[in-house]
Amino acid sequence: MNFKIKMSFLTQTLTKSSQINKYLIPTSSRTISSLNKFSLNKIQNLKLSTMSSKNVTINATHADNETAKGTIEKLNDDAKYLLPLYGRPNVIFNHGEGVYLYDTAERKYLDFASGIAVNSLGHNNPIIVNAIKEQIPKIIHVSNLYHNENPAKLAKLIVESLEKKGTFADGAKVFFGNSGTEANEAAIKFARRYGKTISENKNVILSFNHAFHGRSLGALSATPNPKYQKPFSPLLPGFEYSPYNDIEAAKKNINENVCGVIVEVVQGEGGLTPANKEFIQYLRKRCDEVNALLIVDEIQTGVGRTGKLFAHQYYDITPDIFTLAKPLGGGIPIGATIMTEKVAKTIKPGDHGTTFGGNSLATHVGAAVFETINKPQFLAEIREKGEYLKKSLVEATKGSKLVKEVRGLGLMIGVGLDEKVTPAAVADVCRQQGLLVITCGMNTLRLLPPLIVTKEQIDVAVGIIAKSIKYLEDKL
Q1: Span 375-393, pLDDT tens digits
Q2: Residues 6+ apart with CB under 8 A from 203
Q3: Is residue 216 part of a domain?
Q4: For position 266, which CATH number holds?
Q5: 265-276 b/e (C-beta count within 10 Å ≥ 16 → b)
Q6: Are residues 192 and 297 in the same domain?
Q7: Is the pLDDT of residue 209 over 60?
Q8: I need a labelling partner for 151 at 20 to 30 A (CA). Which of 20, 36, 131, 296 fits?
Q9: What is the mean pLDDT of the chain?
Q10: Distance between CA atoms of 441 and 268, rounded to whole angstroms?
Q11: CB–CB of 473/402 below 8 Å?
């Protein structure tokens, strides 16, 4: 029996009252990838169980058309009722364990996507499961009209981890929301509010080329990519853009009208590109010169992903605001906006709010996740495994005409590919061998394994990736 591999477009861019005033601010994806010069749709008449090229034979142990009976019917049902925003393969996952996911055909996949950097402690982790079980019988949600026991505990953990360094010398406050885009929306609003305490004209938010800060209208306005912005124009006024890693441009563009500069120190959707240390340090210096706020978007990099608790710690600076989300709840939706006392003093009750943010369940689970990751040995192991993954990828793909660069920090690694092949094509071949990887901008394969991954599991993943790239290279 023969079949034609179907191209799937992986999507990237989807306590007590006394403590509350101390730590909490007092207020009441993914996109469809396009094919370049080569896609899997050009590979015809491949055997069901093997995919062969001149130098490589791949066992397609997880072929899309060998999924469980009833899958297509279920997917058709999904298409009938769900808004079709995501391009996805014909596979349905129904449970996971550790670094593995299982589909409805009981096939086992090594997960190097982690729900787009969300499942940092893996699937069905007893720490998260027990935290959920502890809280659900008590209370899940009461809204922010009333106090509950848990938000200040998580806020205290975050604030105390900052150790009163730099801009946080006087402490910090935390606002909890439900997602990364909400955390960034809050940061943008707080920067605008801060700017107005200085001048009515101090209202410009500056972001950088290839950035991604979210899909709600404010965060989208700070995401200078026509693919995301054009369908929803006109966007909000008061947003300007500057080249990433360009100090001279930053000097020109960060002026007295700028109230906030928002930056990712590793651009998640922008190709897993780390910022130059000199660039981030200059942003800190320039923001101080014009009395603007430096906002670091740590939605994807934060809570240990890069091997530091927060990625900005690699750059020897402290921001005025930084944002967290993806891994903080271990899969339970949560976002956080952390700001200096200087910023918090400009925010008044009623200036911002949320119905679900800071609910009992999300913050209880968040505290369990944060305490687990914020340990020196755990973070050191992430750095070690990240270096091992990077070096292994470089060695395994040495000589490949399709691999241009391996980059990133910690367990946030990108494989930059030649334009002759799409990262979506590589991801499809990997998936049909039981490895889940995702893609991002700059023609990059994105690897975000759970932080609990082992070197042995890294070896398996690297072997599959190298074989997949070689297979596609042979097919050119």
Answers
A1: 999 999 999 999 999 999 9
A2: 192, 195, 196, 238, 257, 259
A3: yes
A4: 3.40.640.10
A5: bbbbbbbbbbbe
A6: yes
A7: yes
A8: 296
A9: 90
A10: 8
A11: yes
